[in-house]
From TrEMBL:
One of its GO terms (molecular function) is DNA-binding transcription factor activity. PROSITE patterns: HTH_LYSR. CDD domains: PBP2_OxyR. Residues 1-58 form the HTH lysR-type domain. Pfam families: HTH_1, LysR_substrate. Keywords: Activator, DNA-binding, Transcription, Transcription regulation. InterPro entries: LysR_HTH_N, LysR_subst-bd, WH-like_DNA-bd_sf, WH_DNA-bd_sf. This is LysR family transcriptional regulator, hydrogen peroxide-inducible genes activator. GO terms for cellular component: protein-DNA complex.
């Protein structure tokens, strides 16, 4: 009895046709028939009733097929385990990161992973959410570090931390002296967004309960993709911004940013992989490295409200145009 013979009888059970099963197994039909005959002679049991159309397993054959499926699953697990143990902390790993997180997290992450996995060559790409999801699914990226949930059926999400949003205000803003920020009606038309960062923008519009974004001072339209540019626009009193807390990690002008009251609006940051990704240990190491390099303020428990993006009417409308 061989693993290949077990694959053949499982394929026959699924296809119920010798020619189709042979095609699935990339073997000739006579070759598959001979292997089935050899297996039946070896165990002394007829696995399939050939008088039935379509082909049908016998009563004992059904039990043998079920056991064969279990054996094949366990064989695949052993194979994946061996591959993982040999290659998990070596080789090349392609990582994508959303652009609203990359400038602040990646320098910390790289430093931590150098110590954790010194033999892994990390190739890091900054991109927007749509690109990351597509490239993880088609295999161009191994892992994406991004906001979730994605709602994508073929992607697996491993949450790492929850990042609060904070308000970024000019010095002359009415709430500049307050301890916490609360949405002001006059602020809504001046909310600054990022071009083509539709998932991020959708989260901001949700926080402010805005359906459509406006323009700076009703005079300028803008096409920017940097949170640092948003900050400079705020300092120039050209609007206000809601930004991720990691983006103020090195901020000296502490009077310009204000936390929200509990429950704080947050985005969930996860490691996202395809449903065929097998390097589980490396994923665990990445999760641990990211968590350990975070500021202590992000590790504490707090009351929060998770802001989604993939079900936002704004997001759906924008991506449907491409």
């Amino acid at each position: 009895m061989t693993i290949q013979q077990l694959k053949y009888i499982v394929a026959l059970d699924e296809e119920r046709h010798f020619a189709r099963a042979a095609e699935v197994c990339t073997v000739t039909q006579p070759g598959l028939t001979i292997q089935l005959k050899n297996l039946e002679e070896e165990i002394g049991i007829k696995i399939f009733d050939r008088t039935k159309v379509p082909l049908k397993p016998t009563k004992l054959g059904t039990e043998i097929i079920n056991r064969a499926k279990k054996i094949l699953r366990e064989t695949n697990e052993i194979r994946n385990f061996v591959i993982n143990e040999k290659n998990l902390l070596e080789g090349e790993l392609k990582i994508g990161v959303i652009s609203t997180l990359s400038p602040y997290l990646i320098p910390l992450f790289i430093k931590a992973m150098r110590e954790t996995a010194p033999k892994v060559n990390f190739i890091i790409k900054e991109a927007n959410t749509g690109q990351l999801m597509q490239e993880v699914e088609n295999g161009m990226l191994d892992v994406a570090i991004m906001a979730t949930p994605t709602g994508h059926p073929h992607l697996i999400e491993h949450p790492v931390f929850k990042e609060p949003f904070v308000a970024y205000l000019s010095q002359n803003h009415p709430m500049a002296a307050a301890d916490f920020y609360e949405i002001q009606p006059k602020d809504k038309p001046e909310l600054l967004l990022l071009h083509h960062e539709y998932c991020y923008n959708a989260q901001l519009l949700d926080i402010c309960n805005i359906k459509e974004p406006g323009k700076i001072k009703e005079q300028f339209s803008y096409d920017i993709s940097s949170i640092e540019t948003l900050k400079n626009l705020v300092r120039a009193e050209l609007g206000f911004a809601i930004i991720p807390q990691l983006s103020i990690i090195n901020e000296k002008e502490s009077q310009l940013f204000k936390p929200f009251k509990d429950p704080k609006p947050v985005r969930e940051i996860s490691l996202v992989v395809s449903d065929t990704f097998s390097k589980k240990l490396l994923l665990d190491k990445m999760n641990e490295a990211i968590w350990n390099c975070l500021p202590e303020a992000l590790k504490k428990d707090f009351s929060y409200k998770k802001i989604r993006w993939n079900d936002s009417p704004y997001f759906i409308d924008k991506v449907s145009k491409f």
